[in-house]
Each structure stands twice: as C-alpha cells, then as structure tokens.
Prior knowledge:
Chain A has about 170 residues and is an alpha/beta fold. Helix content of chain A is about 40%, strand content about 20%. Chain A has a five-stranded parallel sheet, with helices on both faces. Chain B contains six helices and five strands; from the N terminus they run E-H-E-H-E-H-E-H-H-E-H. Chain B has a five-stranded parallel sheet, sandwiched between helices. In chain B, strand 2 (about 40-45), helix 2 (about 65-90) and strand 3 form a beta-alpha-beta unit. The chains are: A alpha/beta (about 170), B alpha/beta (about 170).
Amino acid sequence: MSGGGLGCVIVAVDGGEESMNALRWALKNLKLRSTPPEGSLVILHVQSPPSISAGLSPGAIPFGGPSDVEVPAFTAAIVAHQRRITDAIIAHALQICSDTNVNFERKVVVGDPKEKVCEVVEELHADLLVMGSRTFGPIKRMFLGSVSNYCTNHVQCPVIIVKDTN
Amino acid sequence: MADEAARERKIMVAVDEGEESAYALSWCLKNVVMENDKDTLLLLYAKPPRAMYSALDGTGYLFSTDIMATMEKYSNEVAQCVMDKAKRICKDLKYVKVECMVDHGDPRDVICEMAEKLKVDMVVLGSHGYGVIKRAFLGSVSNHCAQNINCPVLIVKKPKAAATTTTSSAN
C-alpha cells in the first residue's frame, strides 16, 4: 500500500493551543501523498466576523440620532485587531510546520467557524479534516466542542479530533 | 510527514458487520499506517451483549438451553466472520502487527474502555452516517467515542457516491 497518502489535509486552527497540538499531531502521524500531484496541508483559520467577536456593541447613537450608521473608524479598528489575531495564529502555525518538509498552504476565511470549515472542506475536496477540541469546565470530558461536533456530523470527508492530552 | 515515525504507535480500529468500518480500516491503512514495524493495529469487535434470558419468559414459553446455545454460537460465528473480513483487508501489510480482540457489551462503552485500558495512540471508527432522527433514537457510537476518548479519534465516513478511485485500490 505504498501508493497511498492524502492529497489535501485541512487543519483548522484557532487561538487555542489544542488546535496547534492537532497540527503537530497531524505532521507527525499522517502520510501525505508523495507522488504528484503531491499532497498538501492547508492551514485554515476562520475569523469571526467583526460584529460578533467584538463582544461589545458600540452604544446606539442617543437622542434619536441615526441608529444604523456604522462608525467607520471603530469598525476598522476591530477589523484591524481581528487581522492581527489571525496573523499571529497563522504565524504560529507556520512556525510549527517550518521544520518539516511539508507542502503547506494557508487559508483564512471570515464567518461562522462551524459553517465555514464545512464549506472549505467541500470547496477544496479535502481528504481529511483535522481539528482540535477544547474541553471546558468541570464537565470536561462529557462534551465535544461545538465546532468539532458540528463538523464531524456535517462534513463528508474523514475527520480526526485531537484532544488535549492531560 | 513522509519521515519515519520514530515512536511505536498502537492504532485501534473498531470493526463491525457493516461496510463503513471496513472502509474505515482500509482508509486508515492507506493514509495513516506507516510501512514500518513501529505500528500495531488492534482490531476490536464489540459483540452485542449476551441477552440474559430467563428460562421462563413472560409468555410462558420456556427457552431451552439449546436455543441459548445456538444464539451464542451464531454470535460467535458473526464475530469470527467480522474478524476474518478485517484481517483480509490487512493481509497485505508486511511490517505491521495485527491483533484482534472481541469483547461483549455496548460498542460505545467497549471501545472507550479498551482505548483507555490499552492506552492506544489513536482510535479509528467508521460512521454509519445516521441522520438526525436515527441518531436521536439509535445513538451514535462515533459521536460518543469522539467525546469520551482522550486520544485522537478518526471518524471515517463512507462516501455516498460510487466508490472513488482511491477505494478501489484497497482490494
């Protein structure tokens, strides 16, 4: 079975350490196709749209003023901040990949993480999706993160969930 | 990624009577298992729990011991069949150790317990691909295992379309 190997592997990364662990695990344990067309690893980061991740909503303009005017500078500041977060995540991920001779690509999309991951998997016809999964709170082992759960149920390709090893 | 893995890995693959787990096994062999002698493949089959029938059931019929013995024998034959099928898929591997295990009980619990007890490095499951309703009634083994096993879990779904070229090379 030496002719096997994966063509396109998508690793979904976010700001959490678990997804970086998932990336490291993927680099160590998977076989990418070495015969052309060569397999590649796609580092995917889904950036939440500014309005949601802002977490704070700018106060409505009081006294009956226009209520749906965006304050341009404010939105731009949030977008710039998001972009910095994204860059840091991607840079960290690339650094992890840097000492392997893996053919990798990066992809950043904006939107709801669960849905965007599924869309990108379909769009790129991925052979495998690798995700980390966070475990929250005292009920740690009972629940899979909502993004991992959603993606496991909705993508058509195989999925690997890598959890943090404690 | 093409480098030789320096560590030994134990990869557990849960098999059952369905096609999805056979597909998961062959996918795993093509894409995860390295052709060196560092990997051990553990094939696990969970036999449905032995129903404890009392000798006298509610309708007044007596279940003879013959019937229970027959059912037990049938269940063993199914287990043997599943294992043989799985071993046949693995037969081309030269350097990988293959071990088979059969246990009784609900697959969800059996898989999780075995994964912890044997401290495997990875668990591979097929997925029956139930929709929402079936999932609600039958439950999902792959979902349960993905939540409760600590090591990486690989869930392989069989593509609904006609077999792609990658799967036809498995046989």
